[in-house]
């Protein structure tokens, strides 16, 4: 809240002095404030608080994925207004605002045109319910004003303001108070009206363009002023900015008379579709003027998000526990995978895999797992629910013939509406994509089905998605953990196939899994969650000595039987060795680690071979 | 146009016949100034369209009607300022005496109309560009003033448009160029005047539809759409991009015609900032609100909205393409279609959002667009000619310098080849082959002697065991070249590769959609899983890979498209593992007609020896754990490689020198000789052509304009290497080219004949036996022959004899004829 006042006062500074330095100062100030411990948690989050409980023009944050980038726009950075009664000219600042004050002198020589860009941002797709809940709870703890009781609302704001008053503030001007109160009053009167245009039922006819079906949450048009080149599509960001829900924005869009549209050539160039996509009502898609954005390495609320000393302390303290947590998690996963320890080991490795770099076209570190031989009847569904409980972002794609033929996986540019229509493969980094091939039945794939399968294949082999721009395709690299569950060997490529060998056959699968799940305490589960997110971020290296050993080993293996080990096998074993070491919290490969990796890969291979000879005709 | 008084009207009609209407091109000058200071002969006078040809053709500046230029923005006006009183004080500009009136600069600029005109006329009369190689100048004498010749062309053809290359203006007069870029709205009309004066002076009798309009293009800095910023507003810019959408024609009112309902007095009102102010009072009879708009007598101009998207090559990775709105006016309407890649020269505009009278606040955003002055399609000639110049990438001098330094290094060839796909281990020769493919040979045109174009592109086939990173190599190449296409043989149909005709849902027009091969014209088409391709699909490749064209006869469209693409294909052996006992053809089961069209065929096998394994292991481990910096030290940056290739492809056209030709001849003769000893042909002219291409490509790698012996040596070596791998007859161990050209090695053919002869002899020796048992004959032959004879061979021999009409085979009996 305090920051919001500052913002209000920074802009008038431009009136006396059009020196752009103040802009840099504003940013610095906000960045400085947000770096302060805990301060970022004072800022209410659009993810957690319904829009109509937030004050317009206040500072909010938003945890989101950049879904689309619109064209840059020019706006009046500085403009002059003429007071109709006094004829006095006043210079005003247009930055961080959507609309101007009244009486703009369009011919003024003092007008400064500046450039900004709009990003269409959506909440991180597939964010697990637990991640949402935890971040909501932690936010609610510090921002009492986000209480959901409308009658208490005003009161709580005042409390909040009072809280702020008690804190030492240098920048605060004495007469900010009326402004603040005025606004909160206005907000009170506005709230009901925005409630009547209820967000939930309204969004049904307005396509908010979420990548995954059934997603909810606010989408946001983020106006970006600085560092445009540093942002990329599909980045996950935590954006701090000024909320703008000026109803004018909506009115401008809706009041347009179709006959006027015909006449005005400058506006007829926008099709109604385009207008809907680019200027949706502000009550549904608020505008956010970005002050500062923090790229998110992960969206696990249990981990400190910023790479600060804080985090390194956290990491080192957790590293000690790492091995024990791993053992517990492994036991848990073994139970879940019906007593198959090897499959559990591989699943664990898969969950911490991460594309850490690319060598020309080759993504390194990806580890797509194909769990074959999964029992039918909702086992996979249950398995997904358990995975979902562990990772912050996930999505289960049931590969039934119908979904494969009808679903849009690859984002496609819609030139009529001039936006990128999202698809299920537009996911944030490190999202777990759970492909359920057990749902696939015999039948005919149509052309879009074939395209979808190809897209999945490309995703797995190259970790990239070719977005469809109709006249050409554009390649977007991604970093998605793909887990394929199937009966036989999957029709999709994978880095590693593990046939599941259940040791137990519970008569009632649902009950069995539910009991396993219930047996875990939340604190235990939380530990697992931290473990998985953390193991992924660890650095890793390999010494020359071990390199030599690995080389020798490879040569030896080839000597006995050149067919048995190929370059591809070495690739995979190196990845397994890396993940195995990381899973134990070791940041270098030891000789032991390599032997272990070799060992479990051997076990796995003998199992697949066994499977092959059982089935006989499998290639 | 949003004013309530304006209404759209269907067509444009002629108005009263006034030879030259008083209309001023400079909107910023006041009417009063114009009337008092400018007489009719002043160059500042600028007519409006008078009636369309009213019987008598006219000529001369005065007689030819002037076409309005909405592209220069009559729709947007600055406040009108009386130049006479305000300027000298406000802008400190000098107003001195001039022949026709005063020497003034245009308000807000430093442009003096007289000087500017003079300069431009001088430019037109004197500019010579002897080194020009633009296609527009084809057929012009390069040592004569270029633009005077163009004016002459105008007088002959009668198309009143003069395209002026801005880089010419810049090299001639930098100051004039600066003015043109900064104040196009003021300078271009001045240019128009200058041209017209000059033209009608020279060709007083020519008749044009309207006065000549100057269309500057190539405003030197050809910008990326992304780099446009607020400073470019109202300046002339050139950007490149791709058309994604065009609107229907929009009639835009230029001048409204009002008539008083009471006294029939008429008046005209010009559009001011997109609005027309309806006169409230009739000037003649003083009746208020009596004026009505007469649509039929108002003037309209054509306008079209075009959306342009930045071309994929200009985009930074990981961002979405930007789009820009472009307005085309008058005859530029409908000049471009969605999908065209164009360079646009125009004026960048920003218009504030319309103020809503009912609201006190406005959105603080401007709408931006470009008013087009000149379109230039970059892929225009792709369908019927070479487009060397359109592809030209601009290199900075430093870049060229670094590239040349790199080229001067003695080991540049090795360096580049190792920079190619560093993640793939060794396979040096394959990488070298692909490198040469990226550079390509020199294009030769023999169409005058009737042989058509010679293929300059090198085609390569990789075959070998699965899992030997063939796909990865293909992916890499596809990412490296600007016009690459990647398809998989499994998924692509003949249609997807060539072109298909579809109906545009909007226009109901039949549109030719091009497939991967045509799209990769001048690039590389990577085809994975070549062996999985259906026969019909493969058959289209025959034409592409030798003639470099694609013929299409579909839905009434018959055409031949250029597909000058190199093909890089990867094929897996039919049995999942490569069988070293079989020939290439037998292993991959591809028709030999297609195989012979590949210049180089490489085998990517998994070599099984210890030293190799060790190096491979080292390479892979390093790949996983080397840091970025280490990698960069070791290898060339991909961007450098890209630029190097692009530079060599555009600027280097090596030709064979004497020694090299001699060396090639020798090499060819040698190749033929090898086989002649064993009674078989071991080389065909196609191999000679391949050698030439490879040698040329190698010269390109060295940035050399001459193909020298070293190039030929390397070409020979590589060619031999590839042949050794792919055309070795597994039965004899000799390299046998006929495996690739006829699908069967010469020894195999010989052997077949021998068996047939032996069989015949055997039958003959038996005397008169009209019918024999099949099985018995086979057993006999096997018993007689010292070499093992398989059933296949026996059957083949039978078939050969049947062809000779010596015997027939019916079921299990063989009858003599």
From TrEMBL, chain A:
Coiled coil: none annotated. Residues 148-209 are annotated as: Disordered. Residues 190-203 have a biased composition (Polar residues). It is found in: Nucleus. GO terms for molecular function: chromatin binding. Its main location: nucleus. It comes from the Eukaryota. GO terms for biological process: DNA-templated DNA replication. It holds the Pfam family MCM_bind. GO terms for cellular component: nucleus. Keywords: Nucleus. Residues 170-189 have a biased composition (Basic and acidic residues). Belongs to the MCMBP family. PANTHER family: MINI-CHROMOSOME MAINTENANCE COMPLEX-BINDING PROTEIN. This is Mini-chromosome maintenance complex-binding protein. It comes from Oncorhynchus kisutch.
Automatic annotation (TrEMBL), chain B:
Its main location: nucleus. It is an enzyme of class 3 (hydrolase). Keywords: ATP-binding, Cell cycle, DNA replication, DNA-binding, Helicase, Hydrolase, Nucleotide-binding, Nucleus. Its EC number is 3.6.4.12. One of its GO terms (molecular function) is hydrolase activity. CDD domains: MCM4. GO terms for biological process: DNA strand elongation involved in DNA replication; double-strand break repair via break-induced replication; mitotic DNA replication initiation. The keyword Ion transport does not apply. Component of the MCM2-7 complex. Acts as component of the MCM2-7 complex (MCM complex) which is the replicative helicase essential for 'once per cell cycle' DNA replication initiation and elongation in eukaryotic cells. The active ATPase sites in the MCM2-7 ring are formed through the interaction surfaces of two neighboring subunits such that a critical structure of a conserved arginine finger motif is provided in trans relative to the ATP-binding site of the Walker A box of the adjacent subunit. The six ATPase active sites, however, are likely to contribute differentially to the complex helicase activity. Acts as a component of the MCM2-7 complex (MCM complex) which is the replicative helicase essential for 'once per cell cycle' DNA replication initiation and elongation in eukaryotic cells. Core component of CDC45-MCM-GINS (CMG) helicase, the molecular machine that unwinds template DNA during replication, and around which the replisome is built. This is DNA replication licensing factor MCM4.
